[in-house]
Amino acid sequence: MATTRRILLIGSAVFAAIASGSPSVAAPDPDEQIAFVRFNSLFLMNADGSDQQPFGVDGGQPDWHPSGDVVAYVQHDAENNSSEIFVTRPDAPDAIQLTDTPRWDESRPDWSPNGRRIVFDAHKPTSGEGPDVFVMRADGTRRRNLTKDHPAGGSDPVWSPDGTRIAFRDPASDCMSISVMLSTGAGRTCLRPPPLGPNQPHEEPAWSPSGTRIAFVAHTSQPGSTREIFVMRSDGTRLRNLTQSATDESDPSWSTDGGHIAFVSRDPDPDVWIMRANGSEQTNITDNEGIEEWSPTWRP
Ligand SMILES: [Ca+2]
Ligand SMILES: [Ca+2]
Ligand SMILES: [Ca+2]
Fold it and tell me: Residue 235 belongs to what domain range?
């Protein structure tokens, strides 16, 4: 988990200097926007990479409310030395803190399709145990552990577009892949055991807007393989490697019409790329050197 669970720290103030946009390239629809993370700050850009602007808050792992007006994100709270979930708006950079749990590190918030709940993962660093999947109301109340009866826990949760199910990274030894459960936490089903590559569960599931497909991140079974973006049907069949590259890919996010997937590729520094949902026309839209971009998420 250490490589994928990125540590978020407050305090970077260099972003204004590097916020100017990269050369723009052909992209799906320049009117669409993508939120992303540059080092440890939230940014917004057009889907062709143009007009890159900081939100004005530090944090990571943004996820848009279905209205497209608000993002939930993760930030390290210096006061209690713990990761917490916040919400903010791109046009009004003040943030509301939803969790306040010094003993727990929260990460990977994902809004329910009706915008009333947030699913996320959290773990206690002192416990030595892995994360569990939790759900809470959009105001941070009624927090509930959805994987408390699943000894292996889970992480990277995402809601199905119809709101009935949650896909997540399932590290159980009989799965090591993406599992799906009802939004109540019942009925866990592993979609694709065993993993493609050794010692690394499939992770970062992203449900297509139609609900028919799930993109995720995994190694291939080849020796020395890198991480790739795979896609499968939401029943676990018809697996396909979309990236097939010698670099590491991660952080898949579908466009609102399902036609494209934004992702991160390290070449070697992390950039936001987009491709068609069949893997063609892979384009680097933050083409720069030495500047880290992560966590693209298409604005509804
Ligand atoms: Ca916390
Ligand atoms: Ca790769
Ligand atoms: Ca970069």
Answer: 3-61+121-298
